[in-house]
Amino acid sequence: MNEMTGSLARVPCTIVTGLLGAGKTTLIRHVLGNAEGRRLAVIVNEFGDVGIDGEILKACGNQACPEENIVELANGCLCCTVADEFIPALDGILSRDAVEHIVIETSGLALPKPLVQAFHWPAIKSRVTVDGVVVVVDGAALADGRVANDLAALAQQRAADAALVHDDPIEEVFADQIACADLVVLNKRDLVDESGLAKAQAAIADALPRRVKTIAVADGKVDAALLLGLGIGTEADIENRRTLHDAEAEHDHDDFDSFVVPLGEIAEPSALSARIAALAEKFDVLRVKGFAAVAGKPLRLLVQAVGGRVTHQYDRPWRAAETRQGQLVVIGLKGLDRAAVARALAG
Hints:
There is one protein chain. This protein has a seven-stranded parallel sheet with strand order 5-4-6-3-7-8-9, sandwiched between helices. Strands 10-14-11-12-13 form a five-stranded antiparallel sheet, with helices on both faces. The chain has two domains: about 5-240, P-loop containing nucleotide triphosphate hydrolases (Rossmann fold, 3-Layer(aba) Sandwich), CATH 3.40.50.300; about 255-345, Hypothetical Protein Yjia, Chain: A,domain 2 (2-Layer Sandwich). The protein is about 30% helix and about 25% strand. By secondary structure, the chain is α/β, with parallel strands linked by helices.
């Protein structure tokens, strides 16, 4: 049930956050396909120059959330650009009377607390409320003792410098995201056995500062009824949720880099997948996602990778006005050799 302010119902907003590759976009895509009659809007915050996540969601073609209701913010991490990016985007969505629920997908590096605090801003506090903060975590990575997939290179780099041994930004981001959670979705359940599941659940329990429900799923398949309609009003409690960055005026993401690699038409999806998987061994690459054109195929190939794990599927036909040009967003540690990565992807 929506909270009431005066005679107007505030529109509930679900914030979906989580580290790179945890499965946020996959989860939201599933929600859009199973909206149970709700009229939705989505704000997608990319970390990079091309709105791949927005394109993935738009490809759903679902009447519950038409393309014009999907807003992409690609000019910086949402928690750092609340005033410049988030408020105008929210204003645009709220101008559409038909929207009943807003889903906000943060970038993998976002801290939820500054975003939730923005719901106290005079321009929006009487119009929206935070239905809940949903944190998506990589169950397979947690089972292996990491908060995200394939961070061995980062651990080795920091271990070599005594001054940085206690300074792990990804661990801090994970801790801050969990600290703000109203619901934790342990994703990639299908990639872990019972022992691994117990390890992942224990890692989440150790990080949680209070009792929060955790659900384990595969491929982001969560019943929309479990995600939408929590009715928590998180903004009213956000100051009680202590994070590692509470004393900081601002934060940055200088340890990370992202860039776009154009991709010509490919012959075989399996060969591209092999090249992408090899990136994690040769470079400090955390995430690859995007599209490719396959010779002789009228459908666009959607490609997503976390470390050495690569998946691909055809998502929709190429449109008549589109150039059959692939694009892959590469996200990794600062200092990536962009030219070498591009050569490796080209084969």
